[in-house]
Amino acid sequence: MLYYYINSTDRSDDVEANTFSKQGQIQQRTDVCSFDVFQGTKPEENQDLKIYDGAIVLSHAGDTIVLKDTYELEVNAFRAGQFIWLRIGDSTIEKAEVLTYTESTRTIVLTAIPSVSLIEDEQIGELIFGGTIAQVQDENIVILENIIYKVTGTDYTRIFDKKRISDTWEDVDSRYIINDFLNTTVNYNSTIDDLSYENATAIRAEWIESGAANNPNVDDADFLESTSSGIFSWT
């Protein structure tokens, strides 16, 4: 099932079935998606847009998640090595990696026990599109009250091509500057990771390696900004 979040609000029930399409681009051009919203508040240009392909949780214990039987089988939505998001739409949303998935029992086993606990009916899934709304077109169906909003979204690449940055900052670090122009100039309220972690366990919970000889670590003695630095000794 697809879950549509516009400005962090779940609009999945407002989206017409089978209207979603996505075009992947090459050569640094932005990916584009489109879908139809049939009811509810009209989406607006520049609003944040996230679309997940996922399922509803039945139960969760440790590293194991069981999905509800409403999940459609044989669509290959989950697989080993895949990164998924737990508690979609919640402030405590967490990224996790799939170790195994058993289709017959709808059981997902993660590579590690997540820090969040899932309860029945919460959403999990893969983020298949992230960006902003670029265009909204109205279309009347039969009568004036039946309005479909045809939404076009572009991925986050577009926000960095949107405007020239012209400003000054004093006595702040580079992370502050980036977050500031994202919020004030690009109008996209999201912050980047400061790579400051309490210990090695904390950084490894966020940055998962595969096929590398070394794991990331924390250096709180020799760093440029904030309170520590993340060290990635990848090979």
List the keywords.
single chain, 235 residues, mainly beta, six-stranded antiparallel β-barrel, two-stranded antiparallel sheet, 9% helix, flat
Q: What is the residue-mean pLDDT, rounded to a whole number?
A: 83
Number of strand elements:
13
Low-confidence stretches: none
Oligomer: single chain
* Percentage of residues in strands: 35-45%
- What is the N-to-C succession of helices and strands? EEEEEEEEEEEHHHEE
Strand order of the largest sheet: 5-6-9-8-7-10
Largest sheet: 6 strands, antiparallel, barrel
Distance between the termini: 37 Å
- So what's the overall shape? flat
Give the % helix: under 10%
Protein structure class: mainly beta
Number of helices: 3
Tell me the Rg in angstroms.
20 Å
Summarize the helices and strands and which ones pair or pack.
Layout: E1 2-6, E2 9-10, E3 21-23, E4 32-37, E5 48-61, E6 64-67, E7 83-86, E8 94-102, E9 107-110, E10 123-141, E11 143-155, H1 157-160, H2 174-184, H3 200-206, E12 217-219, E13 229-231
Antiparallel strand pairs: 1-2, 1-5, 3-4, 4-11, 5-6, 5-10, 6-9, 7-8, 7-10, 8-9, 10-11, 12-13
Kindly describe this structure.
It is a single chain. The chain has helices at about 155-160, 175-185, 200-205, and strands at about 1-5, 10, 20-25, 30-35, 50-60, 65, 85, 95-100, 105-110, 125-140, 145-155, 215-220, 230. By secondary structure, it is mainly beta. The strands form 2 sheets. A 6-stranded antiparallel barrel has the order 5-6-9-8-7-10. A two-stranded antiparallel ribbon has the order 12-13. A hairpin with a 1-residue loop joins strand 10 (about 125-140) and strand 11.
